[in-house]
Structures are given as C-alpha cells and as structure tokens.
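Take a look at my tokenised protein here and describe the backbone shape.
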Amino acid sequence: MRPFRIIDPCTKCLLAQTPHLMLEKTATSLEPCGFQRVVPGATKSFRTSRQLRTAFWQHGAAEIELSTPWQALMHGTFDPAVDSASDEENRSPQLCASTFLLDFLYPSGAIALMRRLTPISSNRPDSLRYGQPFTKLVPRLHTSSIPRRQAHSSSSEPEAPQEVRELGDKGSADGASNTQVEEINTTQVEEVGGDASLNDAVVDVALDSHVEPDERPETSEDHTEHSEANGHHAKILTSLLAGNNPEDADRVWFHYKALDESTQSIHTAQVLIFLSTSGRVPDSWKISELFHKLKPFQWSNTIFVAGITAELSLQNTRQALGIFVEGLELSTLDTMPLVDALDVLLSSALRSSSLDFLTNIWTYYPQMAAKWDFGGITSQLGNVASVPGLAEKALELQTHKLELSWEGGDTSIYQEAQDTLLRILVRRALVSCTDAQVAPLLNITRDPMAFEEFLGDAVSKRRSKLATEVYQVYRQLPGCVPEPRILHETFKAYNTMDAPKSAKLAGIELLWGDWHKFHTTPHRRAFSRYLAFYASLGNTQRVHKIWAQYVKLDCDSRGFSILQGDDTFVHLLQVHAVRGEVEEVQRIFNDISDKFGITPNTYCWNVLLNAYAKAGDYDGAISTFDKLGAMGSPDRYSYGTMMQMAGGRGDLGFTVDLYRRARKAGMVVDDAILSSLVDAYCQNEHFQEAQDVCLRAAARGIATTRMWNKLIHYHALRRDLAGINNILNLMAEKDIPYDQYTYKQLLLGLSLCQQSQHALQLLAVALKDNIFKVQADHFYIVMGALLRTGEPGPVQRLHELMQDSGFPTSSGSLFRLSQAILQWNNLPPSQRQRSSPRQWLGKALRSFYEIYGLDDRMSLDNSFSRRPRRSQRGELLRLDTEQFYFGNMVYIFTQLKDFGSARELVRLYRYVFQAKQDTEGVLPISMLSSVMLADLQEKHYDRVEATWSLLFETAKKEARSSDYNEDLPHTPKISARYRYILSGGLKVMQEMLFSQEDAAGLKSLVEDVVAEGFELDSKNWNYYVQLMVQLKQYKEAFFVCEKMLMPNWTGWFMVRIKENMRNKLPLDVRRKGVSPIHLRPVTTTLYHLARGYMELDKLSPWSSDAAKMLQEIDTECIKVTRAIKSMIRVYSDLESEIFGESAPPTDLMMNEQGEYERETWEEDPTA
C-alpha cells in the first residue's frame, strides 16, 4: 500500500479557496474520534490502493461514551450545520465514539464482513449510508456544503443490524461482486478528469470537504428506494417493540432514527416506553429527547414517570420538577403515576447534600395534598426508603425546618406541610434504620401509623424483642386502638423473642387482656394461637379455661361452626401430649367421636401419634400409625413423626420401609424425614450412607442444617475429629449454614476427644465475638470436657460465668459441680478450703430442691405432685437430659456411701416426673442401675435381684426392634440404640454374683443377656473375663477374651519401644480406644489371664485336666498366649496387687498410650 499522503498541491489550492472548510475540519478534530475526519483519504482509486475505513479504529472495541454531566451540558445545543432545521433537528446526536473508527484501513470488499462480525454501536455518525451500496460516500454533517435532505437523513445514524445490511445489499443481490463495485467506484472517479493525479486530488478534496463530484437532484428512483428502506425499518421496529427485550434497545433506537419524521412521530411513545425499561443510564438522553417531542396531552402514566426519571438521571432537576408540576394540573394522569414521580423526586432531593431541591418540591404541597392523602401513599414511596442515611436526615429535619412560603403570604398550612414531610421520612426510615434509631424516630411524630408499620414487619426482620418494647409505648398513645393484625404480630414477637418463659408469659397475658379491652371478644384466630401457646407449655388449666370460652362462640364471624374447625380439639390433645399423659390424650381422642359425633381429622391423629412418640411407647405409636393408615390418610407430618421415632431407635429396616411408603404416597420429602434416615444409618454404623443422604438432599436444594448436625453428632460419639472436619468442609462447599447446634456438636466432639482447652477457647471466642448464640448446653459440654481431662477447678468458674451471662442455676450446672466432687483431690487448695465434699454436695442437693419448687426435703413429704400420674410405658428407656442428671447424681451419692441422699433424689424424681404415691414403679435405667449399686453396697442382694429382674424384663419389651422377625434369625431383636442399655445394671449383677462365688450364675447371666439381643460393652467383657479367672473358670475366660477382646488389641507399649517401632499409636486409634463400645483388653484383664495361665502351668504336671486345658488354650487362644508371653516387667503396684508373691519373671505391660492402666472407660455416650 502506498504511503499515506496528508495533503498535496491540488488539495492546498482547493483548501485555499475554501478557508471556512479548514475551520470546520479543525472543529471536527476536537470531537470524539474525529481524527479520521481530519486526515484525507488516499488519492488512488479503490482498484489500485486499499481504502482505509473507520472500522480499523474500533475493531473489537466497545462503545465509548462521555460522562452523564457532559451529555447533560451538550443536551439540546445548537448545531450550526442545520441552522434552519426544526427544534427537534437541532438536538445534537449522542456524544459517543464511532463504532468503526479505522474502517478506512480495509478495502471495500471487507466492510460487509466486518459489519457482520463486529458489534456495532447504536449511534454511529459514520459517512457510510447503510441503505446504499458503497458506490457513493455520504458527506459528513459538519460540512456546510451538505444538502439539507442528506443532513437530515444522515444525522446520528447508528450502525445497521443484519436485516438492514441485507436491505443495503439489494443492489448487488443479482450477482454483483466486490470487483464490480470497485469498477463502479473507479468509473465515478475517472469522470472527474483524465489525469490520474488530478483525479486523485479531486477525490481527496471531495471526500475531505464532503462535496460530491456528481451531485444531482433526487430522482423518482431515489424516492422509491428511500420509501422502501423506511418501510423496512418501520417493520423491524414494530417487531422489536413487540418482542419487549431490553437487550434490543440499541437496535430499536437505530431503526427509529432511520425513519423519516412523519413515521417517527407514530412510534415515539412506544420507543420511549421501551427504552424506559432498559434500566441503562445512557438511554436517559434518548428518553428525554423523545419526551420533549410529545405534547402534554400525549403523556401517559408510564411516559410521565419515564420523562421525570430521565431528566433526573441527566441532573436536570429543574426541568424534572417542571414536568411534575405540569402533570399535577393534568386530569388525564392517574394518582399512582404522580405518586411514583414524587417518589423519584424526593429520593433525588434527599440524596443531595443541600435542601434546596427538597424545598422546591415541597413548595407544591398544597397542590399535592389536593390530589391524594399522604398518609395513604407513604408506604408506596419505595425509592425514598432506599435513600442512604434517611434516618439521620429525618432527625436533622426535626430541628432544621424547610423555608417554605406561598403566594399571598398564606402560612396556615406551613406546620401541616412540615409535619407531613416528617411523617413520611419517619415511616420510610423505619424500614432500614438500626435498632438504636427506632425509638428516636418514633418519638419525632408519635404517629400511630409509623408504630403499626414497624410492628407489622418487626418479626420478619428478627426484631421481636424490640417490637415488644415498641408495643408497650404504642398501646398507650392517645386514642390508640390496636388492630387485630398488630395484636397478631405482637403475639408472634412475644412468642419468638429470646427471653425467659416468665417474660414471654407476662407479655402474652398482656396481649390477651388487650384483645378484651379493645375488641371485647378475641377473633377465632386469636383463640387458636393462644390455645396453641399454652398447650406448648403444658398448662392444662389455662387451656381448658380458654377452650371453654372458645366453644361458646358457636360460630365465628364467617358463620363457620367452631366445633367443625380443624384445630378445635387439637389443643386439648396437645396440652396433655406435652405432659406425657398418653391415657388422657387417648381419652379425649375417643370423646371426639363418642361425645361430639365428629370424626377426628388428620391433625388429631398426628397429635395422638406424637403423644405416643413423646412417651416412648413404641408399640403404641406403631399401632396408632397403622390405624391412621387404615382409617385416614397419613400426611407428611405423620410419616415424619413415625420415621423419627424409628430412626432414633436405629430400626433401619422399618425406617427405610416407611420412607418408601411415603414416596409411594406422593409425600414431599423434607429435612425431618431425611434426618430420620441419617439417624438410622448412623445408629447401625453406616456412616457413608448417612453422608450420601445429606449430599443428595443438598443437591436437591434441601439446605437445612438439621441433618448435617446429626451427622456431626454421631461422628463426635465415635471420637472422629477428622470426620467432623470433613463434614464441616462439605457444609461450606454446599452452602449449608452453621447454627448454634452445629457448634454444640463440635464442642461435643472436642469434649469426647479430651480436647478441653480447645473447647474452652471456642466458647470464649463465641462469648466475645458472638460468632454463634451461646446457650447453657454449650457451657455444660465444656464443663464435661474439663472433668474428662481431670480439671475440675475451672468448672466452678464456668458456673459463675454462666450466671454472669444471664443463665440461671439449673440441674445441668449443679450436676457438673457435683461431678467435680469425685475429683476432689484435683481441685485447687483454695476451693478445697471453702467447704468439705459433703457440704458441697449438701448445697447441690438443696439447690436441686429449689429448682423444682421445694424448699427442702421435708416439703416433699407434705406436698402433692404437680403432675398427674403418667404412663409407665417407655419410662425405662427415657433418656431425657433431666433423667440423665438425676441418674448420675444418685450414682455420685452412692459412690460417696451417702445412701440416704441417693434415696431422697429418687423420691424427688418421682415427685417431679411421676405420681407421688408410686414408690415401686419403673425408673429410668440409669437411676435403676444406681439404685442397684446402692443396694449391693448395703448387701441387700434380694433387692438387687428384684430390681434386675424388673429392669431386664422391661428392657426386653421396650427395646424390641420392629425389624425383628422370628422366622429370620439374622434380624436384630433389640433396636440399635439400646444394644448396650443393660451394661450398667449388668456390671452390678456381675459384682453380686462374684461376691457369692456363683460362676455358673455369672455365665448364665451373660448368656441370657446376649441371647435376648443385647450386647456387652468393653468394661462388661473385661470384668467378666477377670471374674471368671478369679473363679477358676480359665477356659471360659481365655476363649471369651480371644474372641471378643483380642481382635482390637494393639500390642504392648514397652515391646514397641524395644523393637524400635513407633511407640505412639495414631491419634484416632487412641481416641477410639477410649470409647466403651470399642472392645479391647485392658491391662488388668491381661494380668489376670497371665496369673491364670501360670496357675494352669503349675497344675499341668499334676493334673491331666489342667494339662489338657492348657494345651487347648495354647492351640485356640493364640493371641492371648502370645500377649502373655511377650510381657515386659515394669515393677508396678498393680503387678504386685494381682500377682502377689508369685510375680512372674516377665514384666508388666503398659497400655497403648504408655501409661499404667486400670479400667478406664468413659460413661456410655448414648446417655
């Protein structure tokens, strides 16, 4: 390509003749992307040189626009090139860069391809006419020599979309090629003259000065072509407007500008409405241009709001206000568009640092007040509510009034205008203000509507406690009559706020009084809610009183019979179900049909089913569910309740069967149903399957934390911190939020893994930084962690910290303090000097009585139980928190030989949770085990046997698995959760039989327990082996140890040292070894077996039976004998205690952790 010639002699000559052209070109260079307009084109024809076009400058570039302020400044400026045009023609085009700024670098044949491949701006002041072939270059609008017709048709032309390019290429559709176009171009150029250099110069000057070499009048053929192009643009524009796609805004604007003036006027309103939906600020000047083409009588509601919004976007606040004022005078506009316009105007004024614009708006308050009621339209001002710092502005305007004045000096409405503005700002500021700003804002106007709006949204915004405080002020306003809607919302606020039950109850009682005070008779919905609240508390007296008032209404306001309501009898059933009174629930359920002649609905069936579930009556729950399936239609809640009970017991087969039945019935699976599957899988050691359930639920959009917390809980019981960490990572990956119960399970895992300091640190961070809501259970778990690691000192300090944090003394904290007594020697000397162990326990026992409403144990003898006698069904397996505390407290007093206090605690339990007159009924299994231990220590063997008989027979019935089938021997007899439930009582029986030297009875006891499907934990098996060795039952002891305990034995610590092996086992293995359900032999067991082996070895030369038994042991019990023969002596007290004077030459072993070991297990984690 030839070098670019800036100018030549011929051009200089022509430019000298037209100096005004130089001035225009200089002005053009100052415009955006005007450089290509200054530089002249090539002097050669298109045939001999490459035509450099504007496309080069913006090849692949995005549209460049000037800022909004510059557009606002340039909006509507005078264009000297079209001085005689109309006002609309004088409006300048969009100040944006050309789409193809370097298209002069490309030959004409590539232009069509470039336009197909490159996104093109909606406003391109280019010299190419898209409706024409490239044979004719259109002069630019900045040239004074351009014809008026071409100036109008060329102004602000965007780049043509695909359909217009097809229209522009019509002339070459019959087979014309790029070569033909270039020939035509060459012919036109050669017509100027014969000399090539002169022709080039003329073409350069013509291109730069925008003077066409062959300008001629418009012919009829040109008019026809123009009409066809105009119709094509109108057709495409109509299609785009009908499509209503905001992404087509640029194309809509291009086709609109390509129309002639008369056709544009037809589509102006439609294009304006379309552009107003794009949401783009750069479209504001286009909307403004279109809006000013319309007369006020042509304004529709949408056009009116769009015009004001566009002017505000262009910062033409005075013009926007003028449009609004003119709209107030029009009768064709509705009220809501005027309110929407006021909304955007006030929003813009309030965002300004000055009050001038706000003052100008509010000057027209009388006109606005005549149009609408400000109290009714305030809630519609959504843009005002989104203004940042609106609360501060409202508080500021309280002291800095607007300077308002009206013609004629009328100041009577001045205060009214000021008050109305403040009420608007206060009500809108309450939407987004902070809690601390609520009271000051409400005190500005004390407007009842502001109070009501706040109370209506407070619960949904989790401002329940603040709502109760606001209501206390609201109900005392002069003339205030709370609407039922406000009373309902305030009820929800009291019910959901985080406060003691006494505070909630006081607020609910206040509201119930307000219902009668302001409305005489509460609504049916109010009766239903209050009955549900008191039923959840188990307050039978209050429920029965309100229910009697409720049924007296007979019919509600809609004429609907109260007795036919879905929830009429539900609350009566629920209040007794909460109290565990299954017989009373069943009686009322039967009365529904027998006395009232009404068929119980599914809600009543569900409450009855839930009552059996809460009472732990598994058989009753299954029977009720089967009846519901036969007589009614179980819903999702029915399946969820039954599955939770089955899954919690670990009946995997029954749980999966219920799940399949629910899916077959078309039930929507929720987190309650899936959580029961997680329970069932984890109870049966299928942890991967449980995790898969959670992952599939997350994939289906069930992002509840409940089932994930269960998964963490079971991993915590396994002492699997790595598994817990993996689950937490999965929760973060699946966007499952953590809650306070997630941290509770994490603290439990740290506690069981003896990471007490980490647990204490996590609790301290939570209290300081509020990373989760700390509850009393979190303190209890950390206290338990400290007790597990032998650190009872900080337990007392944590108890004091609980009280400082607002948690009252409870049975849970007293239980931990009492447990610390068992580690009295580990307490700091300062704490031991304060009181003796017996004084400490005495204080704890008195606190127990105070918690349950008794002054001392004497008041127990002179009082009657506050609770009626409840069903004994399910009492044995009741593992509630309070039952666990009572059982362990009885155990502590028994260990301290304080049997009187132990029996007093049993009486206290019967008083609180059972009928007072019942002295022989079933107790929870932990308490029965402690009672058996107390009787054993007092040598009341008959009582021990009687208690064990009651315990064993009851457990066989209540722990029976629903998966068991007598015809299928492999099915489990006992639910997975209760497999180890007899371990505590069994150990007491083992001690009693050993004291009686009843080896046969001991063996028979273990066989009976195993035959019924129960399992022995590690301490039961170890103790059984030790006792059988001491009772000279060597073969039984060795064979049981080989089969049950040795598979998990990890070897001698001292042997690993001697063999130069890693002496510390992996941390997860050591943690698992602490679990009582992880079967392994302890040091004491192996010592007793070693002594028994020595005794057999001594007897074998003299007794053939002993020799034969020893040979069988060597042959069948390989692991045990190898362990005995590999022991290394360490000279410990335990060695001397077991071996006595006949200590073996071998050394005593250490355990896997390198410590001397006796029986060291934790409490059963299932408790």
Observations:
- Residues 887 and 927 are 4 Å apart (CA to CA).
